[in-house]
Design a protein that fits this description.
- The structure is a single chain.
- It is elongated, with a radius of gyration of 19 Å.
- The protein folds into 2 domains: about 120 residues, 3-Layer(aba) Sandwich (Udp-n-acetylmuramoylalanyl-d-glutamate--2,6- Diaminopimelate Ligase, Chain: A, domain 1), CATH 3.40.1390; about 120 residues, Udp-n-acetylmuramoylalanyl-d-glutamate--2,6- Diaminopimelate Ligase, Chain: A, domain 1 (3-Layer(aba) Sandwich), CATH 3.40.1390.
- Helix content is about 35%, strand content about 30%.
- The protein is α/β, with parallel strands linked by helices.
- The N and C termini lie far apart (about 40 Å).
- The protein is built from 10 helices and 13 strands.
């Protein structure tokens, strides 16, 4: 089944509330593609390997979490020029959803991470420009540190780095995917047993160790795949589109 590009981008804009949070990312359609879309690719990053993977899969549109345009664009040069030229020459559209995909209540990265761990009593956590992008809540059932890490390792195909706290059993947790290291202090103020994010953060190390709280860094890339996988399934269910996830891991923590 195919839909028009206009129909698809309108659907995405509404479903993801694409204008609902101020963001450095220029969210939405960044590079126009074919007027009709039959296959959609999804990837974490707008990089050349993802573009080539999407093209090889026969996609008409690539949806990414980290797009090409952030803040003020100061000309099309170097890598940015090469990427845009590839998209245009290969008739591949590009759509970006950054903070909207972090914070979405069902499709978002953080919501899906909560689902993996059985987090209940969820409430907003970690504000960006006045809007929550993460979630906190209760682990139901409570999990040992080892079990929590095991779930993340298995479900995300990750190798989490752990600052182990003084509690063996964790009952409360805060979650922010990607580069949410600095939100540790909100978790600390809320006396949460555990804080989970993607990217390691040097600045929190001593405070985390001395506070006795468990902090888990599960990988920036790894924590920002769940929402894209969920979005792909949503597009298949709601619009009948064929989708493919282009896996291009970025191992930097």
């Amino acid at each position: 089944m195919a839909v028009t590009l206009r129909e698809l981008t309108g659907f995405l804009d509404r479903e993801l509330d694409i204008g609902g949070i101020e963001d450095k990312s220029k969210n939405g359609l960044q590079v126009e593609g074919p007027a009709e879309v039959g296959r959609v690719a999804l990837a974490v990053d707008a990089c050349q390997a993802a573009f080539e993977g999407a093209k090889a899969a026969g996609a008409d549109l690539l949806i990414v979490h980290h797009g090409l345009f952030w803040g003020d664009v100061e000309g099309l040069r170097n890598v940015l020029f090469q990427r845009i030229r590839f998209l245009v020459e290969n008739r591949l559209g590009l759509y970006a959803a950054h903070l909207p995909l972090d914070r979405h209540v069902t499709l978002g990265h953080n919501a899906r991470l909560c689902d993996m761990l059985g987090v209940t009593d969820r409430t907003g956590f970690a504000k960006v420009r006045g809007k929550h992008v993460g979630y906190r809540g209760r682990l139901d059932p409570p999990l040992s540190v080892d079990r929590l890490v095991e779930v993340l390792r298995d479900r995300l195909n990750a190798e989490p780095k752990v600052l182990r706290g003084t509690r063996d059993t964790l009952e409360t947790v805060g979650i922010v995917s990607g580069g949410g290291g600095y939100d540790f202090w909100e978790a600390l103020d809320l006396d949460l047993d555990c804080y989970i994010t993607g990217e390691t953060c040097y600045s929190v190390f001593h405070d985390a160790v001395e506070s006795g709280k468990t902090v888990v860094f599960a990988g920036h890339y790894e924590t920002e795949t769940p929402g894209l996988l969920a979005l792909g399934g949503h597009l298949e269910e709601k619009l009948g589109l064929a989708t493919v996830f282009v896996d291009v891991p970025a191992p930097a923590y």
